[in-house]
Write a structure and sequence with these properties.
Shape: globular
Number of strands: 5
Number of domains: 1
Strand content: 15-25%
CATH architecture: 2-Layer Sandwich
Structural class: alpha/beta
CATH class: Alpha Beta
């Protein structure tokens, strides 16, 4: 069971993939597009990754505002979610992504990645953080469902 994590932005989509057991998330690539509304190539690339890695589920970051309200980016993300579901036929789960890019930048700074190189991978790291949050949540759910005598 492989899960694809996406950090959907206005010009880029950060992509991360889980390991085959669905335990860890690794950054994979950044899909860059020329115009925000041109999604055909982006969707085709995601579809190719779904096939290549045998993805069974997609997790998409939901960019809520810090005060938990939903703005224009949330509307665009919801439209992208619908397109992903139609194009891939896979379930798409939304995960709160507030501060994921800030956290990704911090991780890269702490790792000593030079400023000019950070922009190339920050979206991938953000996607990995979003996906990792989802995987951890699913593992906690699975553990909660195990009867106490089996733990």
């Amino acid at each position: 069971m492989r899960v694809l994590g996406l950090d959907y932005g206005s010009k880029t989509v950060g992509v991360a993939i889980s390991d085959p057991l669905g335990i860890t998330a690794q950054p994979l690539e950044t899909i860059v597009r020329e115009q925000e509304n041109k999604l055909r190539r982006t969707l085709a690339r995601i579809e190719a990754l779904v096939q290549e890695y045998g993805v069974t589920h997609i997790v998409l970051g939901l960019p809520k505002n810090m005060n938990n309200t939903q703005g224009e980016r949330v509307e665009k993300t919801m439209a992208f979610k619908a397109q992903l579901e139609r194009r891939t036929g896979l379930p798409v789960t939304l995960m709160d992504e507030r501060l994921s890019t800030v956290e990704a930048s911090r991780v890269l700074m702490e790792g000593g990645v030079r400023r000019e190189n950070r922009k190339d991978v920050v979206d991938q790291i953000a996607a990995a953080l979003i996906l990792n949050g989802y995987l951890e949540r699913e593992q906690m759910k699975a553990q909660a469902e195990v009867p106490a005598e089996d733990q």
